[in-house]
């Protein structure tokens, strides 16, 4: 049906977005199921039931496709609150985003996806580049924005907002993420994750607040 629509004419914006979402979902599942090396663009096109030309128009190569898979997964897992939702308190928003990040990096499928990156980075260097380009980029932007607003309200000390955001997030998720990647069972209960968040947050706030 999708092929017929494409051949009959250019799809409408909504149809194009839906098709893009479908292709990304199929590619995501295939990368997790088969790995990066064993997943070809032809396989993605076949499983998604789209023509190869349609696929290559959207994604010039497999690295570009994987890059979008990583970006979508991070954005969906680390949804977090909208700006200003938590009573207009940027620091409360930053803390909430931190909790979302910790849950995201300990998600089973997220862990499997990054094990693929590690396992296949040497034969496919473009894979590591795709992951590095998108690992938390849009999410860090949201954290940076929250810190900038806190600084504007004189609730946070001066400093590079992006460096402060990365300091908070990686202090929070770095050790649990690396342990989970190595197969260790870590912070399996939400109460344990909440304790981790509270500990890191207390140290971070003590260092940045005016």
Secondary-structure blueprint of this entry?
Blueprint: H1 2-8, H2 13-34, H3 41-48, H4 52-58, H5 62-77, H6 90-105, H7 108-120, H8 125-134, H9 137-152, H10 161-181, H11 190-208
Helix pairs in contact: 2-3, 2-5, 3-4, 5-8, 6-9, 6-10, 6-11, 7-8, 9-10, 10-11
Describe this structure in words.
By secondary structure, the protein is mainly alpha-helical. The chain folds into two domains: 59 residues, Homeodomain-like (Arc Repressor Mutant, subunit A, Orthogonal Bundle); 139 residues, Tetracycline Repressor, domain 2 (Orthogonal Bundle). The chain is globular and about 55 Å long. The N terminus is likely disordered.
In N-to-C order, the SSE pattern is HHHHHHHHHHH
Helix content: over 70%
Which regions are unreliable across 5 or more consecutive residues at pLDDT < 50? 1-8
User: What count of domains describes the coordinates?
Assistant: 2
In the CATH scheme, what's the topology name of the largest domain?
Tetracycline Repressor, domain 2
Provide a compact summary of the structure:
This protein is mostly helical and about 210 residues long. It is built from 11 helices and no strands.
């Amino acid at each position: 049906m999708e092929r017929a629509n494409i051949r009959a004419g250019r799809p409408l914006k909504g149809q194009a977005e839906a098709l893009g979402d479908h292709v990304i979902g199929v590619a995501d599942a295939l990368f997790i199921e088969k790995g990066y090396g064993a997943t070809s663009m032809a396989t993605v096109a076949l499983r998604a039931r789209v023509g190869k030309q349609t696929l290559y128009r959207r994604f010039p190569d497999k690295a570009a496709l994987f890059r979008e898979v990583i970006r979508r997964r991070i954005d969906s897992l680390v949804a977090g609150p909208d700006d200003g939702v938590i009573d207009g308190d940027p620091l409360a928003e930053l803390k909430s985003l931190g909790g979302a990040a910790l849950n995201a990096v300990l998600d089973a499928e997220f862990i499997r996806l990054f094990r693929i990156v590690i396992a296949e980075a040497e034969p496919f260097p473009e894979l590591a580049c795709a992951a590095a380009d998108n690992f938390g980029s849009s999410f860090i932007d949201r954290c940076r924005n929250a810190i900038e607003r806190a600084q504007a309200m004189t609730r946070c000390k001066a400093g590079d907002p992006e460096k402060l955001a990365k300091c908070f997030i990686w202090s929070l998720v770095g050790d649990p993420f690396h342990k989970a990647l190595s197969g260790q069972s870590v912070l399996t209960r939400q109460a344990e994750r909440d304790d981790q968040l509270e500990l890191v947050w207390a140290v971070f706030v003590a260092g940045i607040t005016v």
